[in-house]
């Protein structure tokens, strides 16, 4: 599988807060890399033959690339908004395609069945009509006007509410979710999924959050989000095929899958095929 189209993208490779001089060994798209702090306390990423790779530190994470990114890391304006709490959730390793991990994050219909009594519950299983578009100027996939009943939409929620969502895909292995903020209905909570492709069928998932929640303990915020994603992991690791099918005829979508359809179409348009399956086998 060619990785050329995705090689110039930015990918998360670690939490900046956990870096030290000794560093740690990980991988990016099959290539071993080392992530560490240099003598000045700045993040440093090296690939094979001690090749120094480009680095950015943003949203609590170190980002790098095997190539030469043609654009800056995508913006999340809420990351600079005063009063928000920024939550580094940690990392979860998943035996699945990095593209599968992102697509699962975009799926609303599984809430009542996988995240029962948290993000969904029967009989509230219907996905209402919502809007999906590929925004040409930003070159991003967006889903808006998404509404779903949730028994506990966030750690800060005190009871069941109908939550409104917006989904945004600004990069092939990253997604940003904006959802109703229970303490501040005029604002959005921001929950992101930053996915590090270790191989085509293996990834590290780094969730990160920017919330308005002054009361919940940080450990509780982290535990809540980890609980959600660990529930997802068991589903992701049992999906067949392991790679994400891009041929429309390989899996049968439903009306609830509009975001997934747009995401797959966007991936195919850009030849973002590392972690994808192009034809039926």
From TrEMBL:
Superkingdom: Bacteria
A Pfam family annotated for this UniProt entry: VanA_C
The UniProt record lists the keyword Oxidoreductase: yes
Vanillate O-demethylase oxygenase-like C-terminal catalytic domain ranges (all copies): 94-269
Keyword annotations from UniProtKB, A to Z: Oxidoreductase
Alphabetized Gene3D superfamilies for the sequence: Naphthalene 1,2-dioxygenase Alpha Subunit, Chain A, domain 1
MF term (GO), any: oxidoreductase activity
InterPro entries xrefs: Cholesterol_7-desaturase (IPR050584), VanA_C_cat (IPR044043)
Entry keyword annotation includes Oxidoreductase: yes
UniProt protein name: (2Fe-2S)-binding protein
């Amino acid at each position: 599988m060619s990785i050329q189209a995705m090689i110039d993208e930015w990918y998360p490779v670690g939490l900046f807060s956990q870096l030290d001089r000794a560093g740690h060994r990980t991988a990016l798209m099959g290539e071993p890399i080392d992530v560490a702090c240099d003598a000045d306390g700045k993040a440093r990423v090296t690939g094979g033959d001690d090749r120094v790779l480009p680095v950015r530190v943003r949203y609590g994470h170190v980002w790098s690339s095997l190539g030469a990114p043609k654009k800056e890391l995508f913006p999340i304006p809420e990351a600079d908004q005063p009063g928000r709490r920024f939550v580094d959730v940690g990392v979860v390793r998943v035996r699945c395609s990095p593209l599968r991990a992102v697509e699962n994050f975009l799926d609303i219909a599984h809430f009542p069945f996988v995240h029962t009594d948290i993000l969904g519950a029967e009989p509230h299983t219907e996905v209402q009509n919502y809007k999906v578009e590929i925004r040409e100027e930003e070159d991003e996939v967006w889903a808006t006007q998404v509404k779903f009943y949730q028994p506990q939409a966030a750690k800060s929620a005190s009871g069941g509410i109908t939550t409104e969502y917006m989904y945004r895909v600004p990069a092939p292995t990253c997604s940003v979710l904006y959802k109703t903020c229970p303490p501040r209905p005029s604002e959005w909570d921001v929950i992101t999924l930053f996915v590090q492709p270790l191989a085509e069928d293996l990834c590290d998932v780094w969730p990160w959050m920017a919330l308005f929640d002054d009361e919940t303990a940080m450990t509780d915020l982290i535990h809540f989000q980890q609980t959600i994603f660990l529930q997802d992991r068991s589903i992701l690791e049992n999906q067949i095929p392991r790679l994400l099918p891009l041929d429309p005829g390989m899996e049968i979508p439903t009306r609830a899958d509009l975001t997934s359809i747009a995401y797959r179409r966007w991936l195919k348009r850009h030849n973002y095929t590392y972690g994808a399956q192009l034809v039926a086998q």
